[in-house]
Amino acid sequence: MTNTLTPPGRPVGDGAVAVKPDDRLAADKRYKIIEATMRRYGYQGHGLIEALHSAQEAFGYLDDFTLKYITRALRLPPSKVFGVATFYNHFTLKPQGVHTCVVCLGTACYIKGAREVLSAIESGHGVKAGGTTADNQLSLLTARCFGSCALAPVITFDGETIGKVAPQTVAGQIAQRLATSALR
Amino acid sequence: MNLEELNATATNERLAQAKKNHHLHVCVGTACQALNSEQIAKALQTALRQQGRNGEAEVKCVGCPGLCSLGPLVEVASRVNGGPTQPANESPADANHRTAVLYQFVKPEDAEEIIAHLGGEPVKRLETPLDQPFFTRQTKVVLENCGKVDPERIEDYIAVGGYQALLKVLTEMTPQQVIDEITRSGLRGRGGAGFPTGLKWGTVAKADPNRYPTNVPEGIQSRKFVICNGDEGDPGAFMDRSVMEGDPHRILEGMAIAAYAVGANHGFIYVRAEYPLAVKRLRTAIRQAQRAGLLGNAIGGTAFSFNVEIRLGAGAFVCGEETALMASIEGGRGTPRPRPPFPAESGLWGCPTLINNVETLANVPPIILKGAEWFAGIGTEKSKGTKVFALTGQVKNTGLIEVPMGISLREIVFDIGGGIPDGKEFKAVQTGGPSGGCIPAQFLDMPVDYESLAKVGSIMGSGGMIVMDDSTDMIEVARFFMEFCMDESCGKCIPCRVGTVQMHRILTKIQEGKATTRDLQILEGLCDLVKHTSLCGLGQSAPNPVISTLRYFRDEYLSKVKPG
Fold this sequence. Notes:
By secondary structure, chain A is α+β, with helices and mostly antiparallel strands. Chain A has helices spanning 21-27, 30-40, 48-59, 64-74, 78-87, 107-111, 114-125, 167-183; strands spanning 99-104, 138-143, 155-157, 160-162.
């Protein structure tokens, strides 16, 4: 199935990718993971969301090339794949920073001051919600609810849950984690 | 495995557990795990080895016992007599209750001290009483195994009577008898709307798969489907997550029973991608059940076969709506469609589909085992059984609770919840998430059931219960929910897509002090319009937070608008 992908004939995405598509599929083992997911659903359309999940897990985001690859493998119209990828909040078409911080804005967190926590991080690290810092180190996202409401307000840093944060200290906590990972 | 093998497994597991005098249960639910509870389990195991007490105690990682605000929690259950065996018919859960000690805020450093005190006086500085109202006022049906069984071991679930109901159904009952039993129990859908479960099952069972055109993908044999709705999107609700994480086999058993009753051979569990732990535990549970012959082909040696697949959500609130959820399983955008035809007649790929909430399905095995009369004996006349709530917000004991229907809000907030912290006053409790409303203090003594909540302008919802104190700005709460609905509106129907934006704009205007009484009138008009003309539940209920705050906290609105 991999070989059925014909070269698109023009630069992919923002034009930064110089390699030919087939080279890229062969060179990058992560496409094998997406391939396996699609095979599990018999390359049928109902496996689309699962395929996007594994693509996002493998690459961190969905670029044009990957979307086209899935489009052809599943024989779906590009509009459908793009439509699904943009409909769901979980999928992102933008590359993410090295680290990701997610602020929960669920009701329980909101009542306990998540808004202030978010603005403290925004001003402390110079990044707006949904954006990435200039040095590409930190992406700041918001979420609907982690379901860890007893720990409200909650943030996660690279998947690690940090509960009961305070607006005064949260920016420092994140800076500290960024520094420790930079040392490693 | 058949019934004999199941019983043998249960007995063996009970005997193995009975060899240990002490059972240490460490909560590894999401909230406690975030506080390093897995480290605690490891530290306890190390301490057991170091103190040479391996033989008399075991450490078990369990689901959420409920009191998340005191986490991480460790429960130590010891047998009183310390005899070598226990009666085979007594489940370990019963035995554990006899002398149990609950430790709060446990750190890995405390492990040695806890182990050293096993069998003696409990560690006083960590102990939290088990006879506090938080525990004594609850009635556990759905959550009876959460905090007791290891969610990653099927044997542990079998030892407390797991899969007995499924085999009973398969060997002793006809599908119609199962449906009748569920109907007589009075179980109603726990997803929020409260539709009678037995009626739904009966409709799907009677539905003709050939009535509507179908396009089932290759490789799926079934012509009817069972879907477990685990897309728990309400912010501030985590009941389903706790059940999926703490007792995944219960859900599989409930699904299999439902599938037998309606004649389906394939099922889906739709889980939010934001719940990675629940997904992992469900995957493990499905694998174990298949290996044990309790899912898959020829279950329990009978002719019945049933397969379960997990489908991940991708962060769309509207996918909690049944037709949107099915569109998502089919691989498309999760947008709802008009009903009828209802999913019971034409659902997933056009086939008759039974779609039930996690909690509804978790209620099924105990109803089959203990009988419809037992279940109908709990709760009120029209709302039977128990309901799980996620109690959060400005309340002392936050966490997961299960109470009989008909309990008063006052009991939930002040007895179980322990009241409002920091000497503040109770203002309102919000139920039903973005589709629900705020209930003010004057209704505190109202019974909690489907009808009473609807009467005061809220809904049961999936079970989020957020307590607010007098420092909470109610307009801000309404605006928060409206912003949520605005973002989550799928965009298919106009009243919801445009109406939520306009309502949010007016609420923002009110908050900025720029609104007039004329805006308030427009807001009320919009509420009415969106409520009655939207396509699906999201839009129809989106105005609820505004309507209920306007109804009970109108002064707050009036104080912020200018006449005009």
